[in-house]
Write a structure and sequence with these properties.
elongated, 158 residues
Length: 158
């Protein structure tokens, strides 16, 4: 009987974890209930960084719609101030930018994506997790594993 309870609890917990990850990566129901926020970012910039083990990772940064609007307004104000302060000089003023770091962004190694939808996990600080196919696949595997464990628990009781 203990083995059945263990399988049942393990299956339910694994299934719940898979459902939670799947819901958070698709912007589905319950995202707010878990303390998560989903948002779509644009103006993506990715930079390649080499790691000690010989591989490479991409660090991507993007702008939310609110950040893009604030950046555009700041750029406009900086340009007006620059022209007022330096009427004889022609050139671009410094450009302040607000950007958000996005982890696990899908990247083809050459071009940054146009848009990325990501979820903010409060437990990770300011980190945003991109909705990539790999994370969704892991969530589906967790969900299916949980269903299989739960089914095994019910099969043992009959």
């Amino acid at each position: 009987m203990n083995r059945v309870v263990g399988l049942l609890l393990g299956g339910l917990l694994t299934g719940f974890l898979g459902a939670a990850v799947l819901a958070s990566t698709t912007g589905g129901y319950g995202v707010g209930a878990f303390g998560l926020r989903s948002e779509t970012f644009s103006r993506i910039e990715c930079k390649e960084h080499r790691v000690e083990k010989g591989g490479r990772v991409w660090h991507c940064f993007g702008q939310s719609p609110a950040q893009a609007a604030a950046n555009d307004e700041a750029k406009r104000r900086a340009t007006v101030a620059w022209v007022a302060a330096h009427p004889e000089e022609r050139g671009q003023p410094p450009r302040p930018q607000q950007r958000t770091r996005i982890s696990f962004a899908a990247h083809d190694g050459q071009n940054a994506p146009d848009r990325i939808t990501a979820t903010h996990v409060a437990a990770f600080g300011d980190r945003w997790i991109a909705h990539s196919a790999g994370i969704r696949a892991a969530a589906v595997v967790l969900l299916l594993t949980g269903a299989a464990l739960t089914a095994c628990a019910f099969r043992r009781t009959t």
